[in-house]
Write a structure and sequence with these properties.
Layout (H helix, E strand, L loop, with lengths): L1 E3 L5 E8 L7 E3 L2 E8 L2 E5 L2 E5 L4 E4 L5 E5 L3 E8 L1 H5 L7 H5 L2 H5 L13 H18 L9 H20 L11 H10 L9 H7 L4 H12 L3 H19 L4 H7 L5 H12 L3 H8 L2
Parallel strand pairs: 1-3
Antiparallel strand pairs: 2-9, 4-7, 4-9, 5-6, 5-8
Length: 281
């Protein structure tokens, strides 16, 4: 894989083409990729996103990306290095010190899902991009322009607002796989706690992203994993012959025995009482 380098603190690239002029590549800089017009596929790491005009993607030095263009596409790339923000101490308001542009750019969740902007935000985003393009064509040193700097900073304000609306956590503290599985096993007897909405909130993962995150990391759907693990525990109890169906139903939080029997038969094709009798004969 090619790895491109940039030594200027800020560069703006504006191109329109039907065949992307680069191969899949990495880079040593950050890149805000704005789709001005066109349609196609944007590949980021192992994920593919359909793109259209108004979409914005965030690429960090840890990422690789590529375009597959279905129609002529105009792309605006705002490329900056670590120096671009770190050299401007005067702008560091408390909120941005906590969630810096660099930390937003490296947020792993933003490589898994596409940012969703409402109509008003899309309009402001387009106008901000246009402002940056105008200054890029008129000023000699764009990397030192205060106006361009604050225009770029406003892009991150739009991004942060979209993240809040999508319930995406800034900190990007995705749980270790072992932590997540341990939590599920610990609360397998409490159906309310392991509902997607609750467990996603506990681990600071966007609810809309949680299912895709789980499937990518465990090669099976979240609900399928829960059911499979729950069935394995239930069958141990059925095999022992020491538990009634009501006791098992109560332990695992089913509404009643009928609900429990329906769940088991729906997953295994036989009733729990029949399974119990088979294992004990």
């Amino acid at each position: 894989m090619a790895k491109f380098k940039q030594f200027n603190a800020l560069e703006i690239l504006d191109f329109k083409e039907i065949d992307f002029h680069l191969m899949s590549h990495g880079q040593n800089y950050y890149e805000l990729v704005y789709i001005y017009s066109g349609m196609g596929i944007h590949q980021i790491n192992r994920n593919q996103f359909s793109y259209t005009s108004g979409d914005l993607f965030l690429i960090s030095p840890d990422d690789e990306h590529n375009f597959i263009m279905d129609q002529e596409t105009r792309v605006i790339c705002i490329k900056f290095t670590d120096d671009y923000f770190s050299s401007k101490d005067h702008w560091k308001l408390q909120d941005y010190m906590t969630y810096s542009p660099e930390s937003i750019m490296t947020n792993k969740i933003l490589k898994e899902i596409k940012l969703d902007f409402d109509l008003e935000s899309k309009t402001i985003l387009l106008h901000t991009i246009d402002n940056i393009l105008i200054y890029n064509n008129t000023v000699k040193s764009i990397s030192t322009s205060p106006i361009v700097f604050y225009q770029i900073l406003s892009l991150f304000g739009i991004i942060k607002e979209a993240m809040m609306n999508m319930s995406i956590n800034y900190k990007d503290h995705l749980p270790e796989k072992e932590q997540l599985i341990s939590y599920i096993h610990q609360h397998i007897y409490e159906p309310e706690i392991i509902k997607i909405k609750r467990i996603a909130l506990h681990f600071n993962i966007a609810t809309t992203y949680f299912s895709a995150y789980f499937k990518r990391n465990f090669q099976m759907g979240y609900r399928a994993y829960i059911n499979r693990y729950k069935i394995s525990l239930i069958e141990k109890r059925l095999e022992s012959g020491q538990f009634t169906l009501k006791q098992i139903s109560d332990e695992f939080g089913f509404i009643d025995e009928s609900h429990f029997s329906h769940f088991y038969k729906n997953n295994k094709g036989i009733s729990p009482s029949y399974y119990s009798s088979l294992r004990r004969t």
